[in-house]
Amino acid sequence: MANLARWEPFEDVMSLRDAMSRLFDESLVRHGPFGVWPFASQDSGSTLAVDMYETDGDVMVKASLPGLKPEEVDITITGATLHIRGEKKEETEEEHGDYYLKERCFGSFERVLTLPVEVKADEAEASFEDGVLTLKLPKAEQVKAKQIKIQTK
Predict the structure, then answer these.
(1) Angle at CA 89, nearest 5°, toward 87 and 92?
(2) What are 22-67's pLDDT values in tens digits?
(3) What's the first-to-final CA gap in the chain, in angstroms?
(4) Which is it for the CA torsion 58, 64, 67, 71, positive or negative?
(5) Per-residue pLDDT tens for 29-41?
(6) How many angstroms separate the CA atoms of 111 and 118, rounded?
(7) What DSSP line would sit under the chain, residue for residue?
(8) What is the structure's pLDDT at 91?
(9) What is the distance between the alpha carbons of residues 139 and 148, in angstroms, rounded to a whole number?
(10) CA 66, 71, 73, 79 torsion-angle sign
(11) Secondary-structure class of domain 39-90+105-142 per CATH
(12) Confidence (pLDDT) at 126
């Protein structure tokens, strides 16, 4: 004889409370009320957007820092770890009138990256143009690939 199970149509439907908790967890906490926080700390779930790639002689890092000035950014290399930190200070508030929207975010940020190879920190170069920070980190000599010629007999 076949086993019969009673069908519960609302068993898989989540409660309104669960749905609201999930909504707030996934959107407001991680991304802020107006999208991804551009200057959020690593703990908040969103971080500074970074590209890192390797060329023959260098490790290149590009970071998007819109609205920041070079003097608001601090870059340090400790061993194989790159730290990019900074703070976007809030502009003075206008005391007249009511705000209808205030979506620009201010605050501190930090991004810690593990470099893929050892670099010469004292020869690193940094440039800043159109809100993009570009770091050129020369590879250490022992890391650079060296071609070995085969001797024939």
Answers:
(1) 180
(2) 776 655 544 444 444 444 433 443 468 899 999 989 999 999 988 8
(3) 83
(4) negative
(5) 444 444 444 444 3
(6) 19
(7) --------TTTTSPPHHHHHHHHIIIIIIHH-TTSS-TT--GGGT----EEEEE-SSEEEEEEE-TT--GGGEEEEEETTEEEEEEEEPPPPPP-SS--S------EEEEEEEE-SS-B-GGG-EEEEETTEEEEEEEBPTTTS----PPPP-
(8) 65
(9) 19
(10) positive
(11) mainly beta
(12) 95
Which residues make beta-bridge pairs with 74?
A: 85
CA dist 67 and 109 (Å) reads 13
Q: Quick one: CA dihedral 138, 141, 142, 146, positive or negative?
A: positive
- Tokens 């400790």: give the residue: 78
| CA gap 25, 88 in Å, rounded | 25
List Cβ neighbours of 147 (8 Å cut-off, separation of 6 or more): none
pTM to 2 decimal places: 0.59
d(CA 64, CA 49): 6
